[in-house]
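Hi R.,

Here's the chain you asked about this morning:
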Amino acid sequence: MLYFDYAASAPPYEDVIRTVSEVMKLHYGNASSIHAYGENAERLLNKSRSVCAEALNVKPDEIIFTSGATESNNLALKGAALRYRSRGRHIITTRTEHASVYESIKFLSEIGYDITYVPVDAMGRVKTEDVLNAICEETILVSLMHVNNETGAVHPVVEIGQALKRKHPKIVFHVDGVQAYGKIPVQLAGSGVDLYSISGHKIRGPKGVGLLYIRSGLELTPLMSGGSQEQGRRAGTENIPLIVGMSKAMRLARERQPELKARLERLQILLLEEISQHPEWVLNSSEEGAPHIVHFSYPGMKAEVMLHTLEQLDIIVSTQSACSSKQAIPSRVLLGMGKSEAIADSGIRISLGDQHTEQDILQLIQAMRQMKERLASFEGWNS
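And the predicted structure, written out as C-alpha cells:
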C-alpha cells in the first residue's frame, strides 16, 4: 500500500515515537506538582514551549498547548468572540474553512453573532480587499485558514493581517495553520496574526496534541473551567509525553521545510500534468497552492467509488477532509468555490509527505489510469 493521505494524518517520525515512549516511561509526574517528579515534568513542559515558540519566532508565553487543532480553533474563536463581545458581534470568515472553524462560527451565529462569509475564487483563494470591504463597526474577529485542507489553496494571511493591524488594530485575526506549518514558510512575527492553530499529527507528531499561539496582550475567555494550567487559559493536566513529541516534530518540520517544499513541488507538478491530460477530470488545485495537496474531480463518479477502486490498486487517498469524509455528501469546500454539485460530489484529495519519491508518484499515476479504465463504463451514472 502507498499512503497519500498525509493531510489527514501523517506517520510520526521514529524519533518522535521513541521520545514519547521514553517520556511516558520516565517522566510521568504531574507538571503542577511541587515535588521532584512534578518539577521534572514542568522542565520538559517549559523546554517544549520554548522549542515551539522558537519554531514560530514568537515568545514562549504566547504558546498554549491543547488537545489538537480542533480545540485550538474552538478556543480561538469562541474565546475571542466571548471576550470582546462588548465591542461588537460581527465575524468575518469563508465557507471553505475546516469543520472545526465552520461549526464554531455556526455556533456563534446561533447565539447572536452576525457572520459575513467572504467569497473565494475558483481556486479557493480569498482576496484581501474582499475581507477589508466586509469590515463594519461591529467587526471583532476575522478567521481564515492559511492553507485549505482539501484543495491546498493558500490565503494571503500575512497581507491580510498586516492590513488589519494598520487600519483596524482592535480586530482579532485568527488563522488555522494546520496545513501550512512545515509545508510552506510560516513566520508569525510581524504578520498581524493574533491567533494561530497547529496540530501535532499533521506534522508527523503524535495525535491528541496541538497548540494555539496567542499574541501577547490578547485575552480569551477560557472554554474549560478548572486548574490554572496554561496560564489559566486551558485547564487540565498537560500531556507531557505528547507535548514533548510535538515540539520535536515542530523542530524537525521547520528544519526540513525548505528542502521538503522544493521536493514536493516537483512531485506535485507530475500529478498536475497527468490530471490535466484527462479531459474527463477537473483540477481543483494549482501550482500556486501548497505543494503537498493535489485535488481533482471526476464528474459523474462518486468519490467513494474512486477511493475504494484506488485502494484495490494499493493506493490510499481521501475524498474530503477526514472530519467530513464519512458524511458522503458533496464537498462544502468545492461548493463554496462555485463548483457544480457533480464536481463537489466526485473529488479526490492526494496529499504528499516527505517519505514520497518520484517512483511512488509514477505508481500512483499508473493506478489512477487503471481506475479510469475500470470505471469508464460507469461514466455519468451519478450525474
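DSSP finds eleven helices and twelve strands in the chain.

Let me know if you need anything else.
M.
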